[in-house]
Amino acid sequence: MHPLAERIQNQDMRALARAITLIENDDDDKLELMSDIFSIQKQAHYIGITGSPGAGKSSLINRLLTYIRRLDLTVAVIAVDPTSPFSGGSLLGDRTRMNQHFMDPGIFIRSMATRGSLGGLARSTKDAIRVCDAYGYDVVLVETVGVGQSELDIMKAVDTTGLVLTPNSGDVLQIFKAGIMEIADLFIINKADLPGVGKLKATLEEYMMIVQPKGWQPPIIPTISTENQGMQELWEKMSDHQTYLYETNQGRARREQQLKLEVYDLIREEIWREVRTEIEQDQRKQEAFHNPDADPYQLARSWFQNWMRKGE
Ligand SMILES: Nc1nc2c(ncn2[C@@H]2O[C@H](COP(=O)(O)OP(=O)(O)OP(=O)(O)O)[C@@H](O)[C@H]2O)c(=O)[nH]1
Ligand SMILES: [Mg+2]
């Protein structure tokens, strides 16, 4: 077993942090580590919290953490790419908001910024979630700003996705266009102290009438993070969704689909890693890039076939 995996199994928090760094850096022994991590995987509930910048995701998570801890469950929080231009410097804000939790050994908080990695942001995040799971956390919460494809992909890798909306912000249409509505398992109307809650609720209900989801009906939960309101209902609905996933055929089908996508992704990453390494180490191939008239289709095809033949 990979030494880091063994230490993580023994709840060594420094090993946990090291492993996530190794994942971020796309280290050579990442796959070996992850395979070992997978073999010690526990049964954490993976929860994604997404929504527009400033919707109150971090404030909400902060309150939820307190609530979950009172139930004697342990929690890891992964804040994805908080330095992106979309959420400008909110890590500092998150630190202040979640500060009270830093001394609690039942809570682990970590941010990730891994745009450059081979498998992409979603891949690295999923690996980081698994490492937290192997460590033994009961719940793994992931915060992302719901823009871009990679954020969408992250949400496909968790069990339960909560979409945070705010009344009167007019972000529903944008979120709708970005395809985020479809992946939401829970609609959270945060800042429910502001006017417009009823209207937003009606819009969401209308939306659900049109799409008519089979099986799970996403509940609409109003919350006021600043006043610590709605956390009990939110947590209950999250738990209900986890039960749904494990006890129904639709839930099982969804997990099977996730497994398939993940295997495809990993194969793609593996092939790309190998082919790219070979091309980068081949002087003659590198020279071919200097020719401005080179046919990219022809190069890609012949080099790929080249690489395939080598494996025979
Ligand atoms: N009125 C009101 N304000 C809130 C509520 N929840 C959060 N806020 C405020 O909204 C602002 C943004 O909160 P954050 O928790 O940083 O939002 P976020 O979604 O994590 O933001 P990013 O990570 O930057 O995308 C802060 O000023 C919060 O105090 C709420 O329920 N009601
Ligand atoms: Mg935040």
From TrEMBL:
Keyword Phosphoprotein: no
A molecular-function term among this protein's GO annotations: GTP binding
Signal peptide range in chain numbering: none
Keyword Nucleotide-binding listed: yes
NCBIfam families: lao
Family: Belongs to the SIMIBI class G3E GTPase family. ArgK/MeaB subfamily.
PANTHER family: LAO_AO TRANSPORT SYSTEM ATPASE (PTHR43087:SF1), LYSINE/ARGININE/ORNITHINE TRANSPORT SYSTEM KINASE (PTHR43087)
Protein name per the record: Methylmalonyl Co-A mutase-associated GTPase MeaB
Originating organism: Halobacillus locisalis
Source organism phylogeny: Bacteria, Bacillati, Bacillota, Bacilli, Bacillales
